[in-house]
Amino acid sequence: MDLNVLWFVLLGILLAGYAILDGFDFGVGMLHRVARTNDERRIVLNSIGPLWDGNEVWLVTFGGALFAAFPEAYATIFSGLYEAFMLLLGALIFRAISLEFRGKLASPAWRLCWDVVFGVSSFVATIVFGVSVGCAMTGIPLDERGIFRGTLVSLLGAYPLMTAALTVALFTMHGAIFLGMKTTGELQARIKAWMWHGFWGFVVLYATVTAMTIWLVPRSIENFRYFPWAWGIVVLNVLAIANIPRNLVRQNLPQAFASSSASIAALVFLFGMALFPNLVTSHPHPEHSLTIYNAASSQGTLTIMAIIALIGLPFIVSYTCIVYWTFRGPVQLDKHSY
Fold first, then answer.
1. Cα separation of 53 and 64, whole Å?
2. Distance from CA of residue 23 to its chain's centroid?
3. Residue ranges covered by each domain of the chain
4. Which of 89-98, 245-254, 257-266, 307-316 has the lowest mean pLDDT?
C-alpha cells in the first residue's frame, strides 16, 4: 500500500469513528424533546455530557489530517463550500454552548431556549453532513485548476437532500439506541418507540438512496470490479442492519448499538469505495477531479505524518475507550444541579 492510499484509508477510519461517536450525539440532540420534564431532559443531556467533546476530537483530527495530507482538496472544499461549513461550524458551536449554558440558571424560559438551540443545531449539523455526502457522490463543478465554480444552492438537488434525510434517520436510530442504554422507566419506553421509528425510516431511505445511487451515480460501483472482496462489506452491512431489530426485540441494546455502529462504519467504507481514488469528484468534467495523487502533499510529508499517526492514533482510541468505560451504565441524576 503506497502512502497516498494509506492516508485515504486513515481518513476513512477517522471519518467512520466520528460518524459513529458524534452520530449518536446528534441523534440524542434531535430526540431531546422526547423528554417531557426537566429531570428527563437533564438525563438526556447528561447521557452525552462527559462524551460529546471527546467525540469531536475525531472531527478535528480528520480536518487536520486532510489539511496536511491533501492540502489541495482541503483548500477546494473549505473555500468553495465556505457557506456550508460556516453553517456547520455555527451549529456545532451553538450545540456546545447549549450544553454548557442550560444549567446556569433555574429559569424555565432560559432552559427552554437552550433546549431548542440544542435540538435545532443538532438537526442542522446532521443535514449539512448528509448533504455533503450527497454532493461528494454526485460531484461538484471544478475548473482545470481544481477550484469550485458554482454556488451552494446549485448543489441542492434531489439526491443530496435524500442523503440528508437518510443521515437524519440513521442518527436518530443510533441516538435512540444509545439513549435506551442510558435511561430507565417511562423515558426509556418512549425512546424505544423512537428506536423503531428511526430504524424503519432508515431502512426505507437506505433502500431508496441505494437505488438512486446506482441509477444516478453509476461510477459508484465501478471499483467493485477491481476489488471484488468489497462485496463482503455489503453483505456484512446488510447483516448488521438485520441484526438491529433482532436485538431490539430481544431487549439487547448493547448489541443493537454495536450493529448500528457497524452499519455506519460499513456505509463510510462504501462511501470511500465509491469515491476512490477521488477526494473531490468534478462534475461535469471528471478530468478535473482532485485525487489522492494530484492533491497530495510530498512523500516526505506523508511519511512523517504516518509516523505521527502510528504514535497518536492509539492514544485517541485508548482515551475514547477509557471514557466510555468510565461512564458506562444508566445516567444517575444529580439533584443539586439545574
1. 17
2. 5
3. 3-326
4. 307-316
SS (H, E, C) 79-91: HHCHHHHHHHHHH
**Amino acid 133: pLDDT:** 94
Q: Phi and psi of 170, rounded to 5°? A: -65, -45
- Alpha helices for 56-153 (secondary structure H): 57-69, 71-80, 82-101, 108-138
With contact defined as beta carbons under 8 Å apart, do 28 and 44 qualify?
yes
300-325 pLDDT, tens digit per residue, is: 999 999 999 889 888 888 988 998 99
How far does Cα 252 stand from its chain's mean position?
Answer: 24
Buried b (16+ CB within 10 A) or exposed e, 126-155: bbbbbbbbbbbbbbbbbeeebebeeeeeeb
Bridge partner list, 290: 280
In sign, the C-alpha dihedral spanning 66, 71, 77, 83 is positive
Q: DSSP states of 147-183 as a string? A: -B-S-TGGG--HHHHHHHHHHHHHHHHHHHHHHHHH-
Residue carrying the nine cell digits 445516567: 331
